[in-house]
Specification:
Blueprint lengths: L5 E6 L3 H7 L1 H6 L2 E5 L2 H6 L5 E7 L7 H8 L8 E4 L4 H13 L5 E4 L4 H16 L4 H10 L2 E10 L6 E12 L3 E3 L5 H7 L2 H21 L6 E4 L2 H4 L4 H11 L7 E6 L7 H13 L3 E7 L8 H4 L4 E4 L1 H6 L4 H16 L3 E4 L5 H10 L3 E2 L10 H10 L22
Parallel strand pairs: 1-2, 1-3, 3-4, 4-5, 7-9, 9-10, 10-11, 11-12, 12-13, 13-14
Antiparallel strand pairs: 6-7, 6-14, 7-8
């Protein structure tokens, strides 16, 4: 294979679109090469970071044949499907990709191709590093973690920022900033997930207080480790943390993954109810990713439902996915639960989210997760559009009692 540090192998990409991608060569040092056949595609893959841009409108190389050829490679590069096609054809391509076990497959319009291809290189760079267990233990002991914050935007026309989600990162001394999927599975295996979650909660509360002191009253969402749901002492510790930093609990929402709430329904109900009585919001994260249970929406006191990225991305190309998303949103809103669409990356996905009637959305299309100082500059730049809205999770005054 030819060597290149960063390379896009373009297949079925017509000249006008290719011209719009060329600036990536000069601005980001990404080489763009064209492949005319399956054999040519394999020959032009790079030993470095490589992304395949596979056009769906031209048929010089069958998308299905290209996928089968790429499945034989050792690394299986990320694939970005570009262009609009019949929904049934796209579903066939997606099913084959799933069968061949491609882990990174995206579908975008031609207008969004450049930003998504660039994002694929970022994903590769961040997921390549693999720290070991000993390094993680040192990181916890030395507190090598930091938080980035991703804004959540209202789905109304003015696109106001209505909150942020705190996302933990590991500031590794040698490998740089690592994403959660690079170290949280290791932490869970070692039973260290609670330590990282405790750091995340404390740091997020501290950051909220610092922002509020500077006039930014920004609601914050925090991901909750499943181990803490099993701990009936957790609500008391959390409320004490709020008191320590003089932070109002109703400005915070805890996000729990859909699979986590099945650990012990009675225990979940107890912990969640005590948190709600204190004013804390509870969001059901990644809804639609697994075997979703509709009964959880009314049996547990959720204030927010977060649509899984996969459902958001499928909806523009699948009538069935669109029906499911609309039904989930309608049901949640009738139950008084706010709906947030996760991972919105393209204009087509944005259109689907708005059509479904979601309340809030977040994703690369609007803003990448940022360090606190960078986010503060973003907020200041958007000052006329930022609104510190009262979140739905505030408990009535007669229920806001100590737990």
């Amino acid at each position: 294979m030819a060597a290149a540090s960063n390379r896009i192998v373009a297949v079925n990409i017509e000249a006008p679109l290719l011209d719009t991608l060329r600036p990536l060569e000069s601005t980001h040092g990404i080489e763009i090469v064209c492949a005319e056949s399956e054999a040519d595609l394999l020959a032009k893959l790079s030993d470095g970071q490589c992304v395949v841009a596979l056009g769906l409108r031209s048929s010089s190389v069958s998308p299905l044949s290209a996928l089968r050829a790429l499945a034989l490679t050792r690394t299986r590069p990320p694939i970005v499907l570009i262009g609009d096609v019949d929904s049934r054809l796209y579903q066939s391509i997606q099913r084959l990709a799933t069968t061949l076990r491609f882990e990174s497959l995206a579908h975008v319009s031609e207008a969004d191709a450049g930003s998504r291809l660039l994002g694929s290189f970022t994903d590769q760079a961040q997921s390549a590093a693999t720290p070991d267990e000993a390094e993680l233990r040192v990181a916890i002991e030395e507190q090598q973690f930091l938080l980035h914050y991703q804004p959540k935007f209202a789905c109304e026309r003015d696109r106001t920022i209505v909150g942020v989600e705190a996302l933990v990162r590991w500031n590794h001394p040698e490998l740089g900033v690592l994403l959660p999927n690079q170290f949280l599975p290791i932490a869970e295996k070692l039973g260290l997930l609670m330590d990282i979650t405790d750091f995340t909660i404390t740091d997020a509360i501290c950051q909220y207080s610092a922002w509020r002191a500077r006039g930014i009253d920004m609601p914050v969402s925090i991901n909750l480790a499943s181990s803490l749901i099993r701990d009936d002492r957790f609500p008391d510790r959390l409320v004490n943390s709020f008191r320590q930093f003089d932070a109002p609990p109703w400005r915070f929402t805890l996000e729990v993954k859909e699979s986590h709430n099945s650990i012990d329904r009675d225990l979940c109900a107890d912990v969640f109810t005590r948190l709600r009585l204190a004013g804390v919001g509870i969001a059901l994260d990644d809804y639609g990713a697994g075997q979703s249970s509709l009964t959880e929406l009314y049996k547990l006191p959720f204030t927010e439902l977060k649509l899984d990225r996969a459902l958001v991305s499928d909806a523009p190309n699948s009538g069935d996915a669109r029906i499911v998303m609309h039904a989930i949103v309608r049901l949640a809103r009738e139950l008084g639960i706010s709906v947030c669409a996760e991972g919105v990356e393209t204009q087509a996905e944005l259109g689907g989210v708005l059509a479904a009637g979601c309340n809030v959305m977040q994703g690369r299309l609007f803003c990448e997760p940022q360090r606190p100082a960078d986010l503060e500059r973003t907020l200041n730049a958007m000052r006329t559009r930022y609104v510190a809205t009262q979140p739905m999770n505030r408990a009535p005054a007669d229920l806001a009692v100590a737990v």
